[in-house]
Hints:
By secondary structure, the protein is mainly alpha-helical. About 75% of the residues lie in helices and about 0% in strands. The protein is built from 33 helices and no strands.
Amino acid sequence: MEGMRKLISAILTVRLFLAGAALPAFAQKTTRSAKVESGLVDAVALFDNGQIKAASTLLKTLSAADPANDAVHYYLGMCFTYMEQYDDAVLHLREASRLDPSNFWYRDRLARVYVGTGQSELAIDIYESLLKEYPKKTDIYYTLVQLYGQQGKVDEVLRTLDEIETVTGKDDMVALTRYDILMRQQKPDEAYAVLEAYNRSFDSPRILVAMGDHCVSQFRDTLAVKYYNDALSFESGNPQALLGLSEIYRYRGDFPNYFATVTEFLKGEAAPSEMKTRYIQTIFQHSDPQFFHRFKANLNLLIETYRDQAPQDSTVLQTVSAYYFNTGEPAKAREAIEDCCRLYPQSVGSRGIYVQLLTLLEDWEAAGPAAEQAFQDFPQQLAFLEMKTYSDYNLKDYDALIRDNERILEATAPRDTTARLLAWSGIGDAWHMLGESRKAYEAYEHALKIDPRYLPVLNNYAYYLCLEGKKLKKAAAMSKLTIEAEPDNATYLDTYGWILYLQGKAAEAKPYFKHAMLYGGKDSAAVLDHYAEVLYRLKEYDTARVYWNLARNKNTDGAIPDLDARVEARLKAVE
Length: 575
């Protein structure tokens, strides 16, 4: 009965065993000394102020002086609970309950600890005994329903629901819980009958919405529409009914009614902003791209309606920004998140989304200063400085890239290996771009001391060595580690294959290039050019011509400046 462990939380949630610590009213007992009572008052004050450790220390002293003081044991149990020392908590709460078995709060708190530590059977025993003494206390019934449900005790759950109705009368949530249980037992007809019976006696929008939802699940859309409309006749603007109707219209392809109904839902005051956000996010995450293309204007009106209802809600503004970015309107996406940052200048999350958006838009001129300002405002958030390095790199400001990575090194402790590894790697790449090979290799050595198998550094280090024709044996050893770790990485295969070629091992290099062609190598002019050179060396001239032609077609940005002249010379030499 796994499903029984997940019943509707709105009615069945057990009060958290650490939450809402009700303070019992203790009867004065002649056995309590005035000194202990005075100390207890001080301990309770410490406890209430969150000074749990100090409170427990004082309470231990009081317990030694007066071991029969039930209140002292109770508060010791509370302290140990907050300190997550549950065995000690149980020990003292049990003692408090033994000393004063008539005190509801002692036993209730002990049961909560049992619930929180997974000892549900012991909690059930306590609540069942409390229910005999307090048969009108409905909270106990609901807690027992939850505990029975967790253990799959269906009969006990249903019996307890009957008892709740005996005490309080018919209730929406009891009916819905009984419905949920029967559905989980795969008894849809019996479950639906529960709702029908309740609906005949009471007018409840919640029950009508549940009936509508049930009919939708049974593909009875017409009847579902009737129930949703009945719910709206009792409670105009009922958000669940409006959403149910809107989904039926959407499935039917009745988009005029769909957009009208969703607009009514978004404009309504009954649905909290969080509910509207969940709906908007769900629709935009799961809808077909054609839906967006066909109804772009309608969706834009919908998103603006959503925004107008809570124009200063940070989550709303973030959602609006994400929508416009994903639907190809970057200016509107940027405007929404900029509004959010302006309204909430101390929100790290909003600022992070803004910098990330600029990065995704590849607006490096704006992203760099925005990341720098964010880091100045939130110096503990190193991620902003890391994001600035992306702008440095894309702006080819390699001096700034080195400085910012050095700032990262200054701001991080040796134990922060990931940040330091990336920083040294970035410094090495920057020095290489500036033509300072020695400094680049020194930086790579620092990175490899942190992680000797960090693949990007191993690959770059090896490739730059082979470009210089230096230390090819060392380069081959580093490169081999990369293809062993990622045998289908075209970049790594190219590096290793090219090193073999430079070592005069063209025949050994060929299989690596051939494999690279299967995993993206054909998208790179450099890889195609290298493969053609290998084939040329092996005197496979016709095949080399094919790959050189592919390389020339890919070399649109002139990244290989001598490609055309070199290819012409190579091919002319073998004509």
